[in-house]
Design a protein that fits this description.
112 residues, alpha+beta, two-stranded antiparallel ribbon, 3 helices, 2 strands
Length: 112
C-alpha cells in the first residue's frame, strides 16, 4: 500500500502529527481503540506504562495480522495517556512495532 505524507507549503511544519496521509491501493481496515487487556481479559501490569503500551501495540498488531497486513501498514495511530512526561520518558517499545509511530515519536522529541 502506497502512502504519501501531505504537508502543504501554506501550513506550519507539523510537530508530532501529519497534516494528511494519502493512501492508494490495498484494503482499508479500521481498528478499534485498544487498551492493555491481555488474552485472559485482564489489564496487564497495572501501573507499568511500558508493559501496557507493548500490550496495546501487540493487540493492534494481532488484528492487523489477522487480515494479512503488518504493523507497517498502519497509516495513523492516536495515543492517549494520562501522564505525558511518563510517556515521553518510555518511548522505545513501540519502535519494533510501528514505523509510523517512530516518526511521530521523533517529531515529539524535536518539538521540545
Amino acid at each position: 500500500m502506497e502512502r504519501q505524507i501531505i504537508s502543504p507549503p501554506g501550513l506550519a511544519e507539523p510537530r508530532g502529527f501529519n497534516h494528511g496521509v494519502l493512501v492508494e491501493g490495498g484494503k482499508t481496515l479500521y481498528l478499534a481503540g485498544q487498551d492493555a487487556t491481555g488474552p485472559d481479559g485482564d489489564i496487564v501490569a497495572p501501573g507499568d506504562l511500558v508493559t501496557q503500551f507493548e500490550q496495546v501495540l501487540e493487540n493492534l498488531a494481532t488484528v492487523v495480522e489477522e487480515t494479512g497486513g503488518t504493523s507497517n501498514d498502519i497509516v495513523k495511530l492516536n495515543i492517549f495517556v494520562a501522564d505525558r512526561k511518563m510517556y515521553r520518558s518510555n518511548l522505545e517499545p513501540q519502535e519494533k512495532y510501528l514505523v509510523t509511530t517512530s516518526r511521530i515519536i521523533q517529531r515529539l522529541h524535536s518539538s521540545k
